[in-house]
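Researcher: Go.
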Amino acid sequence: MKIKRSPFQIIALFSAVLIGLALLMPARAFATGGADSIERWNIAMTDFSAGLPLFALTPMVEMRAYAMAHIAMLNAVKSASHPSSAGSTSVDAAVAAAAHDVLVVEFGKFFGSNTPFDSVYTAELAAIPDGTAENRGIAVGQAAAAAMLASRANEDVLGALNAPYTPGTKPGDYQPTPPTNFVSAAGWGALSTFGVRSSAQFRAPRPYSSLRSLEYAMDVNEIAVLGKAGVSARSSDQTAIAFFWFENGSFAWNRIARKLSGGLSLMQHARLYAALNAAMSDAIATTLESKFYYNFWRPLTAIRAADTDGNPLTVKDPYWEPAFITPPVPDYPSGHAAAGAAAAEVLDALVGPNLPFQHTSTTASAAGPDATLTRSYDSALDAARENAFSRMLVGIHFRRAAPWGCSRVAMSPDTSWSERRSCRTEADCAMPPRWGSGPPWVWNASVRGSRA
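Model: Structure:
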């Protein structure tokens, strides 16, 4: 029986194909030597993100801006490298102009002129000899950026983030959660995607058959003990994982990509980062569409209102708190997990599978004495699996909401890619074992005791 790809693997593949990637890019283990201009601009983006306070830049805004800039850079490289331009047009100048013009506009919507990209642009041009080639490169890059911005000129990003939202009134309906008590990105589905037809193309299946189901009860009781603040059923390593992956997905996965893509040419880097960021942006847009389609409540609300769900196996705890702040969007499905799965699929397909690496997190220290600042992984898929599981461990997602891209819920219409890429095995797709054991009534009693 043929294993079907998940929507997030398909999103990654669609983005890669539509941006013009091939499966012939060579595998590399770790970055070596100096960074090229594509990588330098990627570093400038993640350095900017690193300097911002936590939550100052939402994941969907960051992913969209990264994708727009990198696609503009890819188009600039293609134009500057065309046989009719080769030798007479500076590719680095084209890259610089394309990146700069997109980034100052997109991040300027939120930070005004308080971004470093003018300075980065000046430094990049200063390293390029003055003359006709530089001027032509700048013109090519500006044209690529202008085309990218024009393609989304009618999109209201601020309006999408601040779109009005009216919560439902039934058990299971999403409610704004403390301490933020607001809802964000309810209008994100109106924005254009990059590699898929729309954010609704791969809508997730419904989260649960019923709030009265055994699966729902098990998920509520699991997150109640595993994801709560303070003393919980988490092991020390699970607490470390919970906070390790809390940094924005695009911020994390672009840094991981730089470690894994050493030795690629500038053109190959341009294609890789365009595909990577487009896939993550499309994944987050797809999950947001599903989130606001199902409007399913977060664990914090569900546990505090468990007496309203009609399920005798769940237990109300009016004082329950997750291990970290719940994002201001509905629970299902996890955008963070989806973005990680899409990123891992792009890296697996276009850099190489099963490449070990280490990653250092900027949010890991929030785990306190249990923190591990740097963790090691056998592959990008290994990291994506842990990234997805972390959303349960930090108490902000039910198990059902944290797919990592291997569930068999959709068929790929892109058969040529499906035939050329090996499918995931059942072992690959296994989430960590559910907390607790024994019949549900025994397990529920143990939950009651652990939460007393």
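Model: The longest strand covers residues 357-360.
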